[in-house]
Amino acid sequence: MQKKIYIFSAIIIAVISISLLVSDSFAYPGGVSGKTKKTTTSGCSSCHTQNSAISGVITGPDSVLAGQTVTFTLTITMSSGSGKYGVDIAALNGTLSAVSGSGLTLMSGELVQSAGITYVSPKVIQFNYTAPGSAGSDSLYATVDRGHSGAWYWAPNKGFKIYTVSGIVNNETPVNYYLSQNFPNPFNPVTKITYGVMKASNVKVTVYDMLGKQVASLVNEYQNAGNYYVNFDASKYSSGIYYYKIEAGDFREVKKMSLIK
Fold first, then answer.
1. pLDDT tens by residue, 148-192
2. Is 21 a domain residue?
């Protein structure tokens, strides 16, 4: 009888141990949303302890064109602990979607793990962001954790600007043709170019690489007198020096800009 009790006790202990091990791997194997700084001040404190053993950083472009879809990266590092990773990624205004093979899924508009993410440090996770259709700004938020009753961490918020492609700065008529320095400069990957047309004319704004090869035609149309802007999206170009040129009436000017990725 006593032997049976020992065996039964051993089975119970084993079951509890396995249960704790599974639980410690990840508290929410299918993910949980609403745990970023976008919506809460408590994070994952109901099950975890916030500490610097784990950390996360969001990286990606500093400016995005309105309506554009770009890829951002969440990098997780961990110095100690056990179990699998969990994440919650949210956008203030734009929309998110998972990159194939990232291990993420959409829940209530936020990206979370579709299952516990296997531990490796650093762990690099990519995800897609689509900007709203109008100019402004946006922010990305992320909370990362490892193991139920383990550590969690708020990644620093990632802020960036949203630009429209082109438009009129104001309705005033400039007294001269002009071409302003792009802003921001250096840039990654979108920059704004402002120029003035003194009287109605055909206007061209083009971009060249350091070898003098044209890489983009930003404006090529007849425009009335006014102050204009156009955005140059260099997502598909490599870091380096580029030149942009305006041709309007008899006016010609070239300026230099730096793309740093």
1. 667 899 999 999 988 887 788 877 889 999 999 999 999 999 999
2. no
